[in-house]
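Field reference: "sequence" (input) and "structure" (output). Example, Integrase:
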Amino acid sequence: KIEQNQPYKPKKSADWIAHNDKKLKTLAVQLADNGVEHFDPEQYLNEVEHG
């Protein structure tokens, strides 16, 4: 039963966390297989903004 007086915040179940971890690992393998380097979006933005 969901309490009606609380804002609805879905809890991250163990299944969801495991699924997400698996997706991230799969993505890392795919990127490595395709020769894609680790991408840091913040670092990229700093380089673009500050040349």
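The chain has a mean pLDDT of 80.
Residues 14-50 form one domain.
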